[in-house]
Amino acid sequence: MQPESQTIVAVIDDDHFQLESLCDFFEAMGINCIAYPAADAFLKSGDLHRVHCVLTDLRMPGMNGIELLKKIVVEGGPPVCIMTSYADSHARMMAQSCGAAGFLEKPIRSEELLAFIASSSQAS
């Protein structure tokens, strides 16, 4: 299942290696990726309504993934998937109750990631 080639994914993570790895993966899959090292950088970029979906880390310095999710939902932005190494039922329920369209545990499985991207592309 491969998403449309014009799909644009915003990836937000304070881990430079994670950002680079995800963008390399998306590039190999023919998906456009824009990387941001922090939630504030994404919000200030003006790309909120340009991207088809957002993949954000849960725990980051400054604004965390849940706070970013809430802002995106209020703005009527694209679907958001929370990714984390600290997955537990509380984090998952919090993300879902705040409007997350997806929740992925690190290390991220490529099949689950592509399924989220494909469903987000169809929704937009």
Mean pLDDT across all residues, rounded?
Answer: 93
Tally the helices: what do you get?
Answer: 5
CATH level-two architecture: 3-Layer(aba) Sandwich
Widest sheet: strand ordering: 2-1-3-4-5
SS content category: alpha/beta
Sequence of secondary-structure elements: EHEHEHEHEH
Number of domains: 1
For this structure, the CATH topology is: Rossmann fold
Low-confidence stretches: none
Percent strand equals 15-25%
- Can you tell me the CATH superfamily? Response regulator
CATH hierarchy class name: Alpha Beta
Number of strands: 5
Distance between the termini: 17 Å
Q: Which term fits the overall shape?
A: globular
The helix content is 40-55%
Describe the protein.
- The protein has one domain (8-123): Response regulator (Rossmann fold).
- The chain is built from five helices and five strands, in the order βαβαβαβαβα.
- The protein has helices at residues 16-28, 39-45, 65-74, 89-97, 110-123; strands spanning 8-12, 32-36, 53-57, 80-84, 102-105.
- Strands 2-1-3-4-5 form a five-stranded parallel sheet, with helices on both faces.
- The longest helix is centred in the C-terminal third of the chain and has 14 residues, at 110-123.
